[in-house]
Design goal:
heterodimer; A: 242 residues; mainly beta; 6-stranded antiparallel sheet; 2 helices; 23 strands; 13% helix; elongated; B: 287 residues; alpha+beta; Phosphatase 2c, domain 1; 5-stranded antiparallel sheet; 12 strands; globular
Chain lengths: 242, 287
Amino acid sequence: MARVILMFNKQVIKEYPFVEGGMSIGRHEDNTIVIDNLAVSAHHARIDKTDSGYILTDLQSTNGTFVNDKKIVSHKLSHGDNIVIGKHVLLFVGAEVEEAEAEKKKQKMILDKTMVLDTAKQRDLLAKQEVRSEPKVPEKVGVISFIDGSGMGDIELTKKLTKIGKAETSEVKLSGLLMGATAATIGRRPSGYTITFTGGLTKLKVNGKVVKGSAPLKDFDTIELGSYKFQFYQKEKEQPVS
Amino acid sequence: MQIKTSGITDVGLQREGNEDSFCVEDSIGLYVVADGMGGHLAGEVASKVAVEIINKSCSRWIASSAPPDELFGYSDQSLSREGNYILSSIRLANRIIYEMGQGYEQYRGMGTTISAVLVTPSLIVAANVGDSRIYIVRDDRIERLSKDHTIVSEQVDMGVMTDEEAAVSPLRHILTRNLGSVENVDADVFELEPFDNDRIILCSDGLTDLVSDEEILEITQKEDDPDTLCKKFVEKARSRGAHDNTTVVSVYLCDVKKRRNGLLRKVGVGIADFLSVFRRATRKYTP
């Protein structure tokens, strides 16, 4: 069965199995796929099943419908097509195609061989994918926001490794007799932001719990370092308007 | 700080040549693994060239404490000086491999992955392009310090595929980024503070294809000698068919404490300060 996966910001919001008789996409509540966003027209687009496959049609929407980065009026969907409506992405998964394709790929590929996409066509595809993924996935940056009345306000963690402590070289300079030269660090790792206790007699607490090694940080975790108290959260990096 | 290191590469059981290269450069604390690709020895050449260039340029920049404007390309403000050395040396290696591929028929289409780690007493820098991984084992936990630049891992990031699906996907070996196929490439770079008993593993996908993260953690925790550790990993890959070249570099940190002793001493001074202030204060308030 074909499916449509609705995504926003790289996050899957909902999966819709294809409905016989066609699916409509739009802001209005009578649509099969309702996207509540001002960039989306009330009745924006629809997908119909025909003898030759699934057809996506733009219903003369204000902001247009894009498939794989191209503005379309009508488009025959193939497996893996990315439909972009406003800031939302709909991933089309064609079931029959999916299985046949997976089987073909399995046979074709000697699994252990590493390769890179390098023909001109594939690279184009990739470039497009990157372009496409940009508006879709705004990069996030961590922020610590002081809530202890120290008047330090919000500090963006622009470095891969932010040192917090008494030392002059610290990105976030805190005072206090027992504060370590580098009391803690917040690092951006592949798995996300992590806070690490590095030294000094000032205790590091995350959500009230003493941390002696490292702890992963989630949005709105409260961090205490001596008399300092701050909250961690991530915000979208400001991007140049394209 | 003391560093115990070891590196090993094994052709495996099914390949004829070994396209992997690595370097263990204890003098500057640089460790690199590269997995080359491209026929007729080109893969071998690409990985060797990459390792060589990164080693040479990093050594030179570290020795001269090169300022950012002497490096190749713009410096990344989010990184330390050492982080920029690594980033820049990878850019340089990419450009050279790319130009070789453009200029010589026998090198056309060659490329390589890279993972590099630079260890200093105050910083660990990890950088990678492609799917050769970097792990750190600390406090009974294993963490990746590298990002896989593959189609499937991008899909995992996007939430359309789970880690489990990615591990068996037929597309898992298709890279989206490597050294040598485009003019400019940037590595993913991560920085963290070193701790006593940190164990860092760099490896090519010959290992990670056959051995899971949990197994790597278990084997690393049990083995205190980096030499034996590398051999154990290669044996493990061989016992599971070793369809690809396997390369492992392991870096064990010890006695990072020295620096912390320094800190403790400073803290001691801090306490002394505190006490004297306290005494002064009490004296002041005595009627």
